[in-house]
Structure formats: C-alpha cells, structure tokens
Design brief:
Chains A, B: Keywords: DNA-binding, Transcription, Transcription regulation. Two copies of one chain form a homodimer. By secondary structure, the first copy, chain A, is mainly alpha-helical. Helices cover 75% and strands 0% of the residues of chain A. Chain A has two domains: 57 residues, Homeodomain-like (Arc Repressor Mutant, subunit A), CATH 1.10.10; 138 residues, Tetracycline Repressor, domain 2. Chain A has nine helices and no strands. The radius of gyration of chain A is 20 Å and the shape is elongated. Chain A binds a DNA duplex through helix 1 and helix 3.
Chain lengths: 200, 200
DNA sequence: ACTCACAACTGATCGCAGTCAGATAATATT
DNA sequence: AATATTATCTGACTGCGATCAGTTGTGAGT
C-alpha cells in the first residue's frame, strides 16, 4: 500500500523541488565565487534545469540573490532583536540590532553590496524583493520601539528617526569608501551617526 | 599667413572635439529617451565615432551618465548655496540647498536614480565618478557650515549630521516607493527627517 | 482509457555593454 | 623629407542576461 495521498499534486512538488535545487545551487555558487563571477547558466546547470526555467523562479539575477539571502538577513534580525531586549541603553540596544545585520551583510562584501543595490533599485513588484523590503520595515519598527524607551521621543519622531537610522545603515554598508573597512569599523561609524541624532 | 601656432597640438584638439561631441550626443539622447532606452551604439553613431572610442572617454555607460549630469548638479549646488545664505533658519537654510538638488535629480526620474546608483555602486577610480563624489562632499560641507549656526552644535557633530542628512537625501531620492512622488512631496519627506535630527 | 486544456519547461536566439587586435593619424627623430 | 615611434581610433567580436516560440508533463473532464 502506497503512502497516504499527498494533499499537493505532483506539479506543486516538482515546482518546490526545483526551487530548492535553484536556491541551493545559487547559494553555493554565490557564496563561493561572488554574484558577479557566477553566470546564470552555471546556476541553471548546477540546479539541472534549462536556462529559461531559472527566470520563472526569479525574474532576474538580482532577484536570485535576494531569494538566496533574505533568509539570512531574517535570522540576523531575529538575533539582533533578541539581543536588544537584554540591553538597557537606547543607543546600545539599537546597535545590538545593527550588529548582526552588518555582520551578515559583510560576510561576502560584493554580495552584500549587490543585495543593497537590488533592494533600492530593483523591481519592488517581485516577490523576493518585497520580502527584502519587509525586512527593512521590520528593522525600522524594531528601531522605533527601542527609541520610544526614551521618554523624550514620541511615536512619530521615533518612526522618523528609525527611518533615518535605516538610511545611515544603508549608506555605511553600501558606500564604496567603506569597502576596505572591517565590520567593527563600520559599526563604529554607524554608532557615531546614530548617537548624533539621538536627543542630547 | 596662418593663425598663430596653437599652444596645443592637433591631437589634443581632436580629443577635446570628440569629448564635446560625445557629451552633446549622450546628453540629448539621455534627456529625451532616458538612460535605459539609449544604447551606447546610438550615442557613438550620433557623436560620429566608433563603438570602441566611446569607452576611451567613459569606462562604461554609467560613467557616461555621470559625465553628462555632473555639471547640472554642480549648478544646482551653487544655486542652493546662494539661496541658503539669504535664509535665517537652520532647517530652512539646509532645505534651500536640498531643493535645487532634488529638483535637478527628478527632472528625469530614471536618469536621476541611475545617477545615484552609479555614485554609490560605481567605480570610484573613474574621473567622472570622482567628480560626482566631490559634489557630495561639497554638499555635506555646506550642510555642516549651516548647522554650526546653531550654537548647540559643535563642528564634529555638524559634520556627522551633515553626513546623515546626505544619506537621508540619497534614500529619499532613490527609493522605489518614492518614484511616483512629486519633488515637493519628496522635499516634505526629507524636511521631516532632517527636522527630527536637529536639537529640539 | 482517452482526450483536451493549460501549466511548466526548454534551449536557440536576441540585444546590448564592453573588449581588443589591428589600422590610422599625429608627432618625434634622423 | 623620409622614417620611426607612439597616441588614438575602430568595428568585428565576445559573453552575458534575458526572452519566447515551441515542447512536454499534469491533471480534469468524459
């Protein structure tokens, strides 16, 4: 007797398997060689699918990177949020969130910068792009919540400052001048800027 | 008798003429159709030069856009700086600089966003890119000077806040969510953020 | 079991940015 | 003035991301 009939048909399962293979292939190749040194053909070959099929699962190469990296950023955010709970100071708590995100972003600098580029300049209608934007929103919400620990900051200002902090993060991670910097150096730079916009 | 011998030889003059033709051709085509809808081939044809020659004058298409647009931004900055002199309030003075720059950036939205993308992610070794970065530095210096009108802001903090303001501008102009917004709406958004980071 | 409709897949093909080996033109040397 | 040297130019070519007309696989209808 065969196993109980699957709720989902063969189609769905095939699709899921292909998506998994694509994700695995792209993930490995990007991590090893960097997004610019990997061709979509290589990814398709490694995932054992046709060239065109790849673009049914991600509209373009940038989306492919978002697909691969989103989950890593989501983890970094969860980790940072948890750490921030344990930290009393506002500035330190905000930095507790930023730390893991910057670390994640800098694991492979080219990929990290391309991820940011794609987030700001890519097509927001695409699903993986939406997910990435949602992570930014969540990050800003976490910032805003922390900022409101300070009695002098009202909800609206907190949201605005959170958005500013997000912009600061983006530029510090993306800027060409920072390519040579270590994670800690970048964190110092960000800390200095966020400190400056907190009430004195 | 021929005119007095040129200080510069024929080579230099030819080069300058070609650069002028390239700039004019690219400028017109970009303005009319947008950078994405223009091929480098079209630019080369219109400038009456070979395909390869184009890339002796600008390393890539992005550099070509910087070459064409830098002067416009430089003008906007000069205009904004002059306007800021006449404005008493710190926030208003900062906005007086930002106004013309945003207007310049939004004259053709796609080109404006591509310009920003190129500035952050392009090759900073290239000459036109360096010039663009220099404009950012000048803008931040102007911000810092204005911020120091406020006695509570010391020089170091002014420089830091100027950098933050610059990041805010970048994100507001580049963000996909803002594509549909008017210049005034974007300026309002920026104003709100800059106000939030000024001492209250 | 067979057929039909449509979702999913495929790789040959396209358009474009950017390259490079060879051609050409400007200056330096004799 | 002839020749050598070197700067500049050129377009055929390459490699890549992305497309799309045609094929294949899946499941619904009879």
């Amino acid at each position: 007797m065969p196993t109980a009939p699957q709720r989902v048909g063969r189609r769905e399962r095939n699709k899921q398997e292909k998506l998994d293979r694509i994700t695995a292939a792209a993930s490995e190749l990007f991590a090893e060689h960097g997004v610019d040194e990997v061709t979509t053909q290589q990814i398709a070959d490694k995932a054992d699918i046709g060239t065109g099929t790849l673009f049914l699962y991600a509209k373009n190469k940038g989306e492919l990177l978002l697909l691969v990296q989103n989950s890593t950023y989501a983890e970094a955010l969860v980790e940072g949020k948890a750490a921030a709970e344990e930290v009393p100071g506002v500035l330190d708590a905000v930095m507790a969130i930023i730390g893991p995100v910057v670390a994640c972003n800098r694991k492979q600098i080219d990929n990290g910068r391309t991820y940011l580029r794609e987030m700001v300049f890519g097509d927001p209608a695409e699903p993986h792009h939406r997910e990435a934007l949602s992570l930014t929103v969540q990050t800003e919400e976490a910032f805003a919540a922390i900022l409101q620990r300070d009695q002098r900051i009202d909800a609206e200002t907190a949201a605005t400052l959170a958005h500013v902090a997000s912009a600061v993060m983006f530029i510090s991670m993306a800027a060409t001048v920072n390519i040579g910097r270590t994670v800690d150096e970048i964190l110092d730079e960000i800390r200095g800027q966020i400190q400056a916009l907190l009430p004195r």
